[in-house]
Amino acid sequence: MSLNKNKFLIYFSFFFCALALAQESETVEQDSMAMQQLEEVVLTGQINKQSVDKSVFEVKVIPRETMDRLAGNTLADVLNQSLNISIQPNPSTGKSSVELFGLDGQYFKVLVDNIPLINDEGFGNNADLTQINLDDIEQVEIVEGSMGVQYGSNAVSGIINIITRKDSEYQWEITPYLQEETIGNEFSFFDQGRHIQSLSVGHRFSDKWYVNGNVSHNNFTGHYNHREGEFHPLNDGLRGYEWLPKTQYSGKGLVNYSGKNFRSFYRMEYFNERVQRYDSVVRENYNPSTQTSNPTATDAEFTSQRIFNHFNIAGKFLQAITYDISASYQQQKRDVEQYNFRINTREKFDVDSQEYESRKGIYSRGTFNDFFQSEKVGLQLGYELSNIKGYSSPLAGTFSGNSIDRRLEAYDAFATAEIELGQRFSFRPGTRAMFSSQFKTQMAHSLSAKYAFDNGYQLRAVLGTSPRNPNFDELFTYFVDVNHDVRGNTNLSPERGISSFLHLKKNFFPEDLAWRLSSKVSAWYLNVDNRIELTIVNPSPLAFQYNNIDEYRNWGASFTNKLVHGNLQFDLGLSFSGESKVLNSEESFNDDYLYALQVSSNIGYQIPKINTTLSLFFKYNGPEYQFVLDTNQEDPSFIRSKRDGYGWMDGSIRKTFMDNKLHLTLGARNLLDITRINTSTVSSGGVHSSPNNGLLLGYGRSFFVKLLYNLNI
């Protein structure tokens, strides 16, 4: 279970030998990083595609180049280094959760080409970022703050929009790659480590037709950390894994047509993930007459399958009005197979298979622009339709006593305008009406403005609202027996979210191609009221029900900088925020603001003579506080809990050969060797550490090597 050092020495030896040869044989020089900083074009929330500087919204862009420097394979690999985003992996389920401004995945949307992505638990929300493959992604766009007008309900804290590749300058593109990673200090080519293989093929038939396809396999074999795996026969608590084994298969395809005034594409994806859970409790089944044992254990295997279809058409009619219409059918389900396992003979018996969670969705979105033949005024009208059918078995939730099988329908219409008053000032009002089969009619509103000063400063102000609809458990849970009475509430109202952001941005040295500096100061305030919490509705006998009662507030400020000089690129961001939870669901609560600090930075240096890029990424998550329910007292109450701060560092060396066709990347994740961080409770008696309740964040320092070949014809 230890790292096979000899095999990795081979990788490093190969790299440095090739590096030495390249110093003599390669003379191809790459442009400096400053020359490569092209004008970023964004789609998210825009009336028409436009550059970041011209957008009224403040849009963060994570380009493909950053993903390659990180050697990221999933969206979690990339967003783990982003400011104001916190990713929490769960080693016991294989999933990961994510927070944006302290609000979990129910409060922001993950989109693919402006279409919400379905998952086991939601439609655009609660996405597991480790299930989103990066192989065909061009860039990731992040808009912070309520985006209810453009993207409807559940867009309270923001939007993460994944933009996929739809064209190529080459007639043929064939790109295979292999990636091998250690899991902590554990690695072997088949039984330990992370093993990734991928093949992408793209072909341009003509100036109008382009197709591509991708298949990939990502095998995470699990992390032992002194445990003994699935075949351990003793009941000593050492059977199984600390981080569960997980295997993913992904297949994607695209057909794109681009004409003069018409374009369309069809994109499909099939995703399959298998997570295996092995019980640490072993029944030894000792037979005294034969003095033999036949150890067994109860295990489970979870399988997720996603089918994604997206058909889009865009163009002009009446020689002026621009339309963009998408239709999508998606499905993701999670099945569970529970069984008993004979460890010595490796046999399954008493197998019980059932559907665990499921979402099916039909979705359509359309926008219509350019009603006025004017560069000063733009109007966008749009609609959004969704029909979601959801299912959860009793195993899927803590309180789900009966299976939940329900359908939710939504019919939205929205309008937004962009008005320029002179060359300096523009503003954008918008409104949306939301009609639902479950809830009363809701409205979302937004008002954004941008002002350009003489000295190059840009000021943006963004105010927006968005509701958060109750989820299936909150609406339909019914778990009643002699010891429990927990019920959903179909009369719940959506939560109401509002946010305001202020951004001051300046690009320095605009005429100097050797220097580029972009600095931005941001401040924000978010408020969510009508929050849904589980409340006591009857003290004796004790009964619980979900109700609209609590409130959440978050305010903060950030300072971000991007400096590019020649072959050097440096990014630095600092964020300070405070959050408050008004727990009206409890008789005694504390609504004090609890504060947190984040620092995010990365540095990249390019050596053109040897076609090599060095990268280092670092993020510091300061101590975080929250109020947790203390059930160890006779009268349970909320107390303040502290989570220790920690730093996360990743690094890589990327080298290209053969006129940029062959890419070799060596790197390390979690260089600071973070595994578990402690939590503690703060009370009037002092600080009490709770290491047993510490948070498991990583499996230690890991190393990877990635070999990619680009055949472009």
Automatic annotation (TrEMBL):
User: Which keywords does this chain's UniProt record carry?
Assistant: Cell outer membrane, Membrane, Receptor, Signal, Transmembrane, Transmembrane beta strand, Transport
Task: Give the superkingdom in one word.
Answer: Bacteria
Domain TonB-dependent receptor plug, residue spans = 55-159
Query: May I ask which residue range the UniProt record assigns to the signal sequence?
Result: 1-22
The places in or outside the cell where this protein is found are:
Cell outer membrane
Q: What is its main location?
A: membrane
Gene3D superfamilies named in the record: TonB-dependent receptor, beta-barrel domain, TonB-dependent receptor, plug domain
The cross-references to InterPro entries, in alphabetical order and at most eight, read:
Beta-barrel_TonB_sf, Plug_dom, Plug_dom_sf, TonB-dep_rcpt-like
PANTHER family under this entry? HEMOGLOBIN AND HEMOGLOBIN-HAPTOGLOBIN-BINDING PROTEIN 1-RELATED, TONB-DEPENDENT OUTER MEMBRANE RECEPTOR
Please report the name of this protein according to its UniProt entry: TonB-dependent receptor plug domain-containing protein
